[in-house]
Amino acid sequence: MTNLTSRILEFDDASQVIEDYFGRGWTDGLPIVPPTQDLVREFLDAAHRSPSDVIGAEPTKGRVITAEKVAVNAVMAGCRPEYFPVVATAVEAMCEPEFNLHAITASTMGAAVLMVVGGPVVSEIGINSGVSVFGPGHRANATIGRAIRLVIINATGSSSGEIDKATLGHPGKYTWCMAEDTNVSPWEPLHVERGLSENESAVTIFAALSGIQVANHESESPRDILNSFRDGMFAIGARHGELNIVLCPEHIGHFRAAGWTKNQVKQTLFELAQRTEAEWRAEGQVLPESDDSSQMISTASKPENINVLVAGGAAGAFSSIIPLWTAGNGTRSVTKRIQF
User: Fold this and answer.
1) Are both 162 and 182 inside the same structural domain?
2) Rounded to two decimals, what is the model's pTM?
3) 168 with 222, same domain?
4) Pick from 321, 234, 317: which is nearest to 279 by CA?
5) For residue 209, what is the DSSP state?
C-alpha cells in the first residue's frame, strides 16, 4: 500500500469536511470533494507517481510541491483519476522559473493560469474544445483547471487577500482549461508548433488576463476579420511578451478558404496593432524612455509571440483576444509533454 504523509483528519460525514475546509481557507470558495486516502492513492497510481515525488517547487518561496499534495488537491477539485497526469504536468510547467508563478499570483493585475491541452488525451478524457469552450458543463475542463487553482492556494500559500492581491481578478481564476479543435483548424496545434508530435499529449500554461470577445459577422476577408481585433489589442497595452488569439470555426472557415497560414495571421495582427509611441503615451501607457515619439510600436513585442488557437462552437462569429500578464518578458508560457 502507498504510504501517505499528509495529516489525517477524521469527520462523521462529508458535510463536516466541506465546512471544516472552508473554515481553514483550503477552498476556492466552492465545496470540495473530501480527499480520502483511497482516492489520493488511486490518483497517484493513475499517473504512476509516488507520494514523495517532487512535482516542482514555487521558485520564490521555495515551497516543494509533491505528487501527494497535487493529488489531494485534484481530488478536492472533483477530478477523475485519469485526469491526474494532466494536472501533474501542468503543475510541473507552472513551477518553471520562466513562468514566474510568484509574481503572477501576487500581482494586482489578476492573472489566471490558462491551460491549453493538446494531443490524444483531449479525446481520451473529454476536454472540450467546442461549444462554450470557456464555459461550464464539461467535467474535465472544469476540474482540471480548478485543481491548479487549489494547488496554488494550498501548496504555494497564495490565497486571496494574502499573497494574491488582484485588484479585480476574473472568473478564469476559478478554472481555465481548454483544448484546440484540431478537426476544424487548418493548422498544426500549439504543441506541435512547439516541437512535439501530434501523437504526443501536452499541456501549455499561460498567465492569462480576462478575455476580450471580438465579433465580426459580415467580413469574409481574413484581413478584415483581423482588423476587428485591432481596438481590443490596443486596449491591452504595448509590447506584450505574448498574447493569445482564439479564432472560432466560423471565422476560421474564411482563413481556410483563402489559404492563409498561421504565420500570416501573426504578422498581420502585429502590423494592425501598431501605433506611434506618442499615441501610446497619450493613452497613459508606460514605455521606456525614447528620443523618437513617432516610432511605431505594436501590442505584441514581435509577431511570433502571438499564439493563434482554434476553438469554439460552430455557430456564431465570435473570436477572442486573451492578453497575457504584463508587458515585456515578465512571464513566458511553458509547454510540457504529459507523462502517463
Assistant:
1) yes
2) 0.94
3) no
4) 234
5) -
